[in-house]
Amino acid sequence: MTNKKTRLLLFFDTEFTHFIDIDLISIGVVSQHSHEFYAENAEYQKAWCSDFVNSVVLPKLQGGKYAMPYSQLQVKIQCWISGLLEEYASILFIYDYCDDWDLLIDLLTDYPQMDKIQGIKEDVSDLAELYFLGEHPNQHHALFDAKVLMNDFKMKYADSEPRH
C-alpha cells in the first residue's frame, strides 16, 4: 500500500451562458502544485448567452483540442481527477461562486469516487475583487480566473493556516 498525500486543493472557475439560463461553456482548474485542467463544452446553448458572454467570454475561448462534446468533457475531467486521486487521498475544490460548484457537480454525475471530493466556497479578498472588477485581457477565461482565485487564496493565508 502506498502512502498518499492527504488532500489536494484545487481552485476552479467556470464560464457559462447566463445567470438565469445556465449552461457550461468552459472550466479551468489549477492547484498550487502545478496541476492544471482546461476544457470547453462545444455543445453549450449559444442562444442562452447574454450580451456580456457574447462580447467578452466567447472571444477568449481557445477551441481546437480544448473544445469537445459535453459527454467527452465529463469523461476527461473525471479521468483527470482519478489520476490525482492516485496520489492524494482526497480533493477539496475551492470556488468563489455557487453556480460554479453546481456546474462541476453536473460534470461529476455518476463519478465513482465522489466520497473523496468536497467543495468549499471561498470569498475573494478586496484586492481580488478589485481585480475582477477591472479590465484585464485574460479576465473571464476560466483557467485564468482560477489562477487568480488560487493566488488570492495564497495571499490571504500566507501568514496563517487555511481554515480548510
What topology emerges from the helices and strands here?
Elements: E1 5-16, E2 24-31, E3 36-41, H1 51-57, E4 67-68, H2 70-85, E5 88-95, H3 98-107, E6 117-121, H4 126-133, H5 142-156
Parallel strand pairs: 1-5, 3-4, 5-6
Antiparallel strand pairs: 1-2, 2-3
Mean pLDDT: 89
The CATH architecture comes to 2-Layer Sandwich
**Spatial sequence of strands, sheet with the most strands:** 4-3-2-1-5-6
CATH superfamily: Ribonuclease H-like superfamily/Ribonuclease H
Number of domains: 1
The end-to-end span amounts to 27 Å
By CATH, the topology is Nucleotidyltransferase, domain 5
Broad CATH class: Alpha Beta
Which band does the percent of strand residues land in?
25-35%
Q: Which series of helices and strands comes N to C?
A: EEEHEHEHEHH
Protein model, in words:
With 164 residues, the chain is of the alpha/beta class. It has a single domain, classed as Nucleotidyltransferase, domain 5 (2-Layer Sandwich), CATH 3.30.420. 34% of the residues lie in helices and 25% in strands. The protein is built from five helices and six strands, in the order βββαβαβαβαα. The chain has a six-stranded mixed β-sheet with strand order 4-3-2-1-5-6. Helix 1 links the parallel strand 3 and strand 4. The two termini are 27 Å apart.
